[in-house]
Amino acid sequence: MGIMAKQEEGGIAAQVDGLLALAKKTVKQNPERAKKYVSLARKIAMRNRVPLGRKRKLLFCQKCGAPWIAGYNLKVRIRSREGKIAYICACGHERKVKYKKITKK
Ligand SMILES: [Zn+2]
Q1: Distance 37 CA to ligand 1 centre (A)
Q2: What angle do CA 96, 32, 10 make, to 5 degrees?
Q3: Is-above-0.85 flag for pTM?
Q4: pLDDT tens readout for residues 62-73
Q5: Ion ligand 1 — residues with CB < 5 Å
Q6: Cα(93) to centroid(ligand 1), Å
Q7: DSSP state, 70?
């Protein structure tokens, strides 16, 4: 039972990762479709109670849902005074992450 649940979880996570990868591939040709892939990935994760985790949350904008590509629709700025890295989406949404959290793992 426990093992089954674990496998199930892995399948969902793989599905979510697949959609996020697909979103990233699609964003330059079709940004709207790319956003749909992201929202689908989020829905699947939520429905199955699979946490997206810190790493996946940096793959797309939490506000507009666009998959992030550095230098394309994402600016990365180091805020050394705050000890944080700011991820700034083309929509203006800013996500700040502490250095430590990124360098860990
Ligand atoms: Zn955005």
Answers
A1: 15
A2: 65
A3: no
A4: 999 999 999 999
A5: 61, 63-64, 89, 91, 93
A6: 5
A7: B
